[in-house]
């Protein structure tokens, strides 16, 4: 172990991992097998902190791993300890350095060498291309270990990486695991060589979840009961990382589902965000306490005249969707929402129109609509947000082309009551 400062704890610490067998070198010079991102690994790192220091006056209270770096070669641990009855909190950075242990060095230097390769296969769920595109961009941007890939291939519904090192592939898999709630299956295949020996290929099959940001989901009854949150089974997916965060729009309650719990009984979206439509807010009445950014409210809505289910090229034939007549409308919708702190009369929002939806598989009484998010900004920004969210899977180049408006004909306003017109985009 190499430290950078002589005071406890050091600001940075280097730990060594055998890139062939994935074992770590402890302070006694022994190579021990430990899985990364486990409580045992944190204990190992804490033990490394005391190597070469006088820790007789130090009592460690708590140590938690955090990911300030978002890379697979470095990480940090938040350390809380007492030194001479003084409570101290510090963050220690750890750098993982590749090395070959003595046993692997002897084995690899022999005449008969068994070569290891590793393959990572990432499969999209059904036709959900957006999660796979996002994960690919995140890996290439934040995971430094991906630079060691000897081969990569991207298709619409799958992503493939190949490595000639097990440890490097393991680091990429660990990065993916803490980035998104995935299911990982590991297999070993033997490959026959001409001399009768075998090479080995380690394969990680990674499955992406069937839900994504802003999807409408119906939580299975057994999982819904275990969450003990009350409210409705119909929820909005507000965030996906290593855990899945759901919001009940009827009560504002939030629930966190670990990846392990989700994959015990995986479920998909009952409505993807590509089926959302725009609404105009007529009236907002808040009630109850405000919890963070969530504020319950009663909303009066009017469906926008702009239909997001139209093909993109139809936008060029109807670029006057930015004006909506909010007159006496029998099509008003009255719903509860958790966005009372964000929405105001005249605002523009996106949500799911459930007036004609049938939920035969679940025992729920759905509201007329569920509002997901407010849309604001300039006209171009609003156009982009609508297309980016609602045309799931469409390339960004196509979206940008759709934002170029054609030459518009003059709008015939007639005898419209201008006081009832609301500019929503």
Automatic annotation (TrEMBL):
Localisation: Cytoplasm; Nucleus
Domain Nmd3 N-terminal: residue ranges: 9-208
Alphabetized GO MF terms: ribosomal large subunit binding
Keyword Repeat included in the entry's annotation: no
A Pfam match: OB_NMD3
Annotated keywords: Cytoplasm, Nucleus, Protein transport, Transport
Record carries keyword Transport: yes
Top-level taxon in the UniProt lineage: Eukaryota
InterPro entries in the cross-refs: Nmd3, Nmd3_N, OB_NMD3
GO biological process terms on file: protein transport; ribosomal large subunit export from nucleus
One Gene Ontology cellular component: nucleus
Domain 60S ribosomal export protein NMD3 OB-fold, residue spans: 278-365
Function, in words: Acts as an adapter for the XPO1/CRM1-mediated export of the 60S ribosomal subunit.
Family: Belongs to the NMD3 family.
UniProt protein name: 60S ribosomal export protein NMD3
Organism of origin: Tritrichomonas foetus
Source species taxonomy: Eukaryota, Metamonada, Parabasalia, Tritrichomonadida, Tritrichomonadidae
